[in-house]
Amino acid sequence: MKRKQLVSALALIGIGAHVHLAYADSQGELERVEVTGSNIKRSIKQEKALPVTVVRTEELTKQGFTTVEQVVNSLATNQSNVVAAGSVQSVSGGAAFAGLRGFNPQYTLVLLDGRRVANQAISGVATDLNAIPLSVIERIDILRDGASALYGSDAIGGVMNFITKKSYQGVTISGEFSAPQHAGGKTGNASLLGGVGDLAKDGWNLYGVLSYQKSNRIKVTDREFATQNQSLSSIPYPANFLYQSKGNPGDGNVYNAAMPNCKPPYSVPLDATRCGEKTWLWMDLTPDVEQFTADAKFSKQFGDHSLNVQYLGARNISTTHIGPTPMNGVATLTAGVNKYFPTVLSDGTPVTPGATALINLRSDPLGPRITKSTSDTQRLAVNLEGLVAGWDYRTGAAYSSNKTTINYNGGYVNSDLIEQALLSDKINPFGDSPAGAWQSVELNGDGWISKYETALADFKASKELFALPAGNLAAAFGGEVRHEKLNSQIQDLAQYAIGSGIADSKSTQGSRNISAVFAEMEVPVVKGLDLQLAARYDKYSDFGHAFNPKVAFKFQPVDRVLFRGSASRGFRAPSLFDIFQPAAKTYTNGNDLNDPVRCPNGTPANGGNKTDCGTSFFAQQGGNKNLKPERASSLTLGMVFEPVKEITTSVDFWWTTIHQVIDVLDNDLIFQDPVKYADRYVRVNPNDPYSKLDYVSTPTENLGNLSAAGVDASFAWRLPKTPYGNFGITLDGTYTSKFVQQVEKDGIYYSRLSQWNNGLQPILRWKHSLGLNWSSGSWSALLAQNYMSGYTDYKASHNVKPYSNWNLSSTYVWQKKLSVTAGVKNLFDQEPPYSNQNKFFQKGFDPILADPAGRAYFMKASYKF
Question: Of 311, 339, 362, which residue is a domain's last?
Fold first, then answer.
C-alpha cells in the first residue's frame, strides 16, 4: 500500500510545537503510530494532545545551533548543571547532560529511538549529549512528566527521546561556519548524508551519515567580563615559602624572593611579603572540541513487518587549558644546603643558616595544564516491529558503550620527580632554572581510562482489545532485560599527576543486571474521558525491586478544550558510577577558604600560618557502596485550549518530590559550619587536631529530600495569510514556583529558587523560548529569543540580571535541492550578566547559565544531488 505523509494536526513551525506526524494511504486510512508517552499505538485522530513537547531539529538549527547540547540547552524545560564548558575545571571528559526541571542529570532518561544509550563513563550518571549526532536527528520528543512506569524506574524527571531519520534517498552535502565577533570560538562542520532504496516501493532502504565538527576554544583573556571578580592564587611562580628558623624575627612568615616585582604578568604582589598568581591568564572559557560521527541504518519492509539495523559511532575530543600545576608544600629546602636558598628575606631580614623553607610553587615554565579528553561512543541496535493477529509488536536488542580517556597533554608535574629536583637543586623555585630542568619533571600520558557498557533486549505489544460504549479499550504489555558494566581504570602515572584530580585514586569496577515487566491500558470511561493506567516492576541484582504505578487522564468536553493530568511513582537505584566512582582529591570550589582550626576567621592560630588562610583545600570525592535507592512521586495537571484552529495554548502544572537524593555535600556548607561537620575534616596527622588539613570528605551520599513545582506554558499562533507571506508565533516557557532540598536527612530545606544558597546552584524562576517565523515561497526567516530570569548572586551579594539572547536567520531553498541559511546568534551582543560565583574557574559570570561567545555570524548550506 503506497503511503504518503499526512498533514500534521496543527501545522506550526518554530520552537517546541506540539506536532505529531502520521501516514495515510491513498484511501485516507490512518496508520497507527507510537509517540513518546505511551506504548499503545493509535491513529493521529485519537491522539489529540499529550504532555509531550516535539522539537523539530531542522527549525532549531536555523538559530545557528550545531550540537545536540546547544539544542537541549535552548529548551525552556531544561536547566542542566553539567555543560561541556564545565570540563575546563573538572574531570568530566567534556560531557554535557540534559537536566529537565533543573533536576540533576540522573533524573532525565535519554533515549535514542526509544532505547537507552550507555552512560558517559567518566561522569557516569547519564548519557552524554555529545554522543548523539545532530545530523541524523529528525526530532526530539520530550515527555515532561514522570515516566517511570513506561520507560524505566529512573525516568523521574522525564524523558528525552531522540528520533533518527526513518529512511533517506539521494546524497546531501552540508556545511556550516560560525565566527564570533570577538576573539576565539570559531566553529565549522561538514557532513555527508547518502541513502539508496525506496522503503515504500523497493521494500528496503540504506542510508549513512559522516560528519565532522571543530570548535576553537575561547580564552578568559578573550572576554573582558570574564576577568572580573578574579582573585590571586597564593601559590605562584616564583615560589612563596614558609620560613622557619628558631629565634629569627622572620620565623613563621611567608615570603617570596622575587618581591616586590614578582614575575609579571602572571605573578604580582599579593601583600607586603608574598606574590600571587593570575591563574586566569592561562585558562579557557570554553574548550577546543572536535567531534567525529558516523551513523548507518538499514531498513527492510516485508509485509506487515519491518526490520532495521542501526550503527552509531561518535568520538568527542575536548581539550582544556587551566593554570599551571599548583604545588602546596611540595618540598622543604634548607639554608646552607640548597644553593638557591635566598640569603635575605623580602623584608630585608638576613637568613639564618639551617633555616628551612616550605615551598608553595606553581609550574609556570611548563605552561598551562592541558587535558585532552577523548570520549568514544558506539551503539548497535536491531529492531523488528509489525502486526501479528491484530497485535502491534516491537522487539529488539541493543549494545552501546562509552569509553572515555583522560590524557595529560602538557603542563602536568610528576610529584616524585619535582621533589627530587628541588632537593637536588636541579630546579630553582625562586627564579630561573637551567634549560630543560622543568621539562625533566613533566608528566605526559593517559591517566584515566573508563568504559561503561549497556546491553539490552526488549519486547512490547499493544492492541485494541474490545469496544466499550465510549470507545475501544487498548492495552500494551512488555518486558526488558538489561546488563550494565563499569570498568574504571586509573593508570599508574596518575598517582604522580599533581593537580589532576585523580592523583590518589584507585581503579574500580562493577556490574549489575536489571529486568522489568510493564503493562499499560487506555480506558475510554465516557465520551471525552480516557484513563491511562500503567505499571512497571523492575528488579535490580544489587538493589532489590520496585513497583511503579501511574495513572493519567485526558478529558475533552468539547473539541477545542482538553484537560489532562497524571500521578506516578518513581524509583532510582544508585548508578554504577554513584557506587564505584574512584575516590579522588580535587581542589575545593573557591580559593578564599580558611582552615577553621589553623586560621579561624581569617587569622592564623594554633600553629597555623598564611598558607592556611584565604586559599583552596582538597576535597575527597568518590563512590559509596552504602547508598540507598531514591524514591519519587510526581503529579501533573494541565489544560490545552484551541480558541480557533490557528491558535493552540497549553498550561501544565507539575510537582515532583524525590526522597534520599544522591549527591555530594557542597564544601561551602562544610566550611561555614565546621562544628557541625567536624567529622568531615581529615588532617595530615589524625592524632593531632591542630595538624595541617589534608582534605575535607565529600563522598557521594544520600543527602535528604528535594521538592519542586512549577508550570509549563506554550502558545502557538499561525496568523492569517497575507500578501507579504505567512507569519507565526510560538512560545514555550517554564515557571518554577518551588525548588527546595535538604542536604542531610531530616535537615532544614534550602531554597534554590532564584538564588545561590549555601553553595547550591540557583534554579531559574522563568525560562522561555520565543519564535517569530515568516515564510514566502522559497524564502523564510526566524527571529528567536532565549530568555532566562535573574537571581540572587553567590552569598547574596547582589542580583544577577536576566539574560536574553536573540538569534536571527534567513533561509532560501532552491528547487528542494539547495538550502542556504545565514544568520546572527546573539544579535545584540549580550554579555553574560555579572556574577561573583566562586564555584568555577570561569569568573565574572556563571558558565552553566550563560554563553560567553557573544555575537556570532553563521552561514550553513546543504545541497541534495
Answer: 362
Distance CA 714, CA 432 (A): 63
What is the secondary structure of 664-707 as a DSSP string?
E--HHHHHH-TTTTGGGEEESSTT-TTSPEEEEE--EEE---EE
Distance CA 267, CA 264 (A): 5
Stretch among 61-75, 81-95, 247-261 having the lowest mean pLDDT: 81-95
| Residues 492, 554 share a domain | yes
Helix (H/G/I), strand (E/B), else coil: 436: coil
Tens of pLDDT, residue by residue over 558-573, are: 989 999 999 999 999 9
Does any domain span residue 659?
Answer: yes
3-class state of residue 114 by DSSP: coil
CA distance 564 to 652: 8
Q: 156 and 267 share a domain?
A: no
**Same domain for 389 and 510?**
yes
Residue 71: enclosing H or E segment and its boundaries?
A: helix 68-73
pLDDT at residue number 48: 44
Domain count, the chain: 2
Helix, strand, coil distribution of the chain in percent, nearest 5: 10, 50, 40
Query: How far is 635 from 653, CA to CA, in rounded Å?
Result: 8
H-assigned helices in 587-741: 667-672
Long-range contacts of residues 491-494, Cβ cutoff 8 Å, at least 24 apart: 491/445, 491/446, 491/447, 491/448, 491/449, 493/408, 493/414, 493/443, 493/445, 493/446, 493/447, 494/447, 494/448
Residue 75: is its pLDDT beyond 80? yes
Mean pLDDT score, 492-521 = 90
d(CA 563, CA 555): 5
Do 338 and 420 belong to one domain?
no
- The Cα–Cα gap between 582 and 829 comes to 42
Q: Is residue 233 part of a domain?
A: no
Shared domain for 343 and 220, answered yes or no, is no
Yes or no: say if 399 and 436 are a contact pair by the CB < 8 Å rule.
no
Tell me if residue 796 falls in helix, strand or coil. helix
| Residue 606 counted as domain residue | no
Look at residue 255 and tell me if it is in a domain. Answer: yes
262 residue type, one letter: C
pLDDT for the residue 591: 64
Q: Which helix (H) or strand (E) holds 58?
A: helix 57-60
Q: Is the pLDDT of residue 57 over 90?
A: no
Assign 779 to helix, strand or coil: strand
Instruction: Tell me the residue range of the domain where 355 lies.
Output: 240-277+329-362
DSSP 8-class letter at 423: H
Q: Is 408 found in the same domain as 352?
A: no
Q: Looking at the structure, tell me whether residues 104 and 159 fall in a common domain.
A: yes
Mean pLDDT over 321-337 rounds to: 93
